[in-house]
Write a structure and sequence with these properties.
Distance between the termini: 15 Å
Number of strands: 14
Number of helices: 0
Number of domains: 1
Largest sheet: 5 strands, parallel
Shape: globular
Strand order of the largest sheet: 1-4-7-10-12
Helix content: under 10%
Radius of gyration: 15 Å
Length: 158
């Protein structure tokens, strides 16, 4: 759970390989919800082979999820699966170098009460049972996952 960071909510930079970013909720950040990138000194290759899945990005000043690089160490390919994005400056994922996007949802996640920082989702949320089965074994509250037919998208299991 990342709330109101001055910059990006989640950032992976330099030369990560086979990174997994799963079941996060990244909201109201000053930059992007999730940035997968590569560059600067220390980078020996691009950020590649990653799985970014089951995340909610909401109300971020930048993109919900974005790839970026310095041009010398290209990002990708990475896989983006069953992420829910809404009310970000940009809500579409444009992966580079043959990456793929599947199961993305562009809809209001229907938080219980975002004004009180309660980012659990309501029973009618499009996030419920909509995730892929590659997430962690428990959510942020310690609830075992999945509770329904599949993982919920975001940091909390319903």
């Amino acid at each position: 759970m990342i709330i109101r960071s001055l910059g990006n909510g989640i950032t992976s930079w330099h030369a990560a390989t086979r990174l997994t970013v799963a079941n996060n909720t990244s909201v109201f950040n000053g930059g992007n919800g999730i940035l997968i990138g590569s560059g600067d000194s220390g980078a020996t290759s691009g950020n590649t082979g990653g799985y970014i899945l089951n995340n909610i990005t909401y109300g971020n000043a930048g993109a919900g999820i974005v790839e970026h690089d310095d041009g010398k160490h290209p990002v990708g390919p990475n896989s983006y699966m069953t992420n829910l994005m809404f009310a970000n400056r940009e809500n579409e994922i444009a992966p580079r170098r043959g990456g793929n996007v599947s199961g993305s949802i562009m809809a209001d996640p229907l938080f219980v009460d975002a004004s009180k920082d309660d980012y659990h989702v309501q029973p009618t949320s499009p996030a419920v049972d909509a995730g892929t089965g590659m997430g962690p074994i428990s959510d942020l509250d310690g609830t075992a996952q999945p509770q329904g037919r599949s993982y919920d998208i975001g940091a909390y299991e319903r």
